[in-house]
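Recap from last week: sequence in, structure out.
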Amino acid sequence: MIEHDLVRELAEKNSSKIVMLVADGLGGLPLKPDGRTELETARTPNLDRLASRGTSGSSVPVLPGITPGSGPGHLGLFGYDPLEFRIGRGALEATGIGFELGPDDVAARGNFCTLDAAGLISDRRAGRIPSEESFQVVERLQAVKIPGVETFVRPVKEHRFVVVFRGKGLSGAVADTDPQATGVAPLTPQPLDAAAARTAEVAAEFVRQARGILADEPKANGMVLRGFAGRPALPSFDELYRLRAAAIAVYPMYKGLARLAGMTLVGEAKTLAEQIDTLAGCWNDYDFFFLHFKYTDSTGEDGAFDRKVERIEELDAAMPRIEALGPSVLIVTGDHSTPSKLQSHSWHPVPTLVVADTCRPDGLAAFSERDCLRGGLGIFPAKHLMLMAMAHAMRLGKYGA
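Predicted structure tokens:
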């Protein structure tokens, strides 16, 4: 990637601090044509005040019209072209819970689901089964045995788990078994190329045995598998940007992505307040801080417009605590849009705000989708956001004579 070669050449060290606050699924849509989005509906005095100081814009996670998953969305924010660096969700989940993937491993993220008497999906997330219940279900799956392959099943959070298959000749080129709909059956694992035929057979056998084991479960009596992948190779933040990078996230998948990018996972925070406590506690030890807020995404996926508004307001109320630490550069953005209207990720550009003493204010007085479309950053590829962060932190030298 030519940008990476350039960054390696120009990156400089200094004492500046960069905070990237990612409100997962931040962007939204109005429920009716003359209405407001969730961000426009929310009371956000602190974000609006910051918008008047900084420069706003709209980031495109992958390409115009392409709806990204969380992995590609975050890769772009971290400066990795998601079309060049492709990471399956399974690798992210496994790494996020501390599972060290080896060269012969293929991981997949599992979602427990509820199947009706006909074997059709009635609930794609098994009622968001509590973690303490799903952990017991995962324990039952340790009984699955597949000849010639080691199988590891580990709990993640709520309805999510990870399965890792270990054996020679396995491949991550297997299609997801999640049909992304209710009223239909889970899909059968299918190889995406000839080299993955064995892996698809292994996955199908895992599902077959698991269905038998879970048949008496009231909620988690089925599963879908997504994001089959081995361990990827990413250049680290230190190698690229000469930054000591810390990640403060609650959900394992985002921890996994941060670890793959060479960030240090800090703390065991469970709430936004605890995350900011952790941020303050490690402030002197790092140069870059990735702070992840999940709940703007999950409420959007649930179609809960009002609850997404509340979560945005919760985030806004926390902004003064982050500001008080004195970051040289503060970025507020999302990895993708998750409109409650669609109950899913979408292709819409993501509201983005950069605040620094070196910003050229664009005259905006609010942080919202409509305002960001008029902002000074314009509509730009998310993979360029780290370049702007580095520049505003005075961490990029001059290019050429």
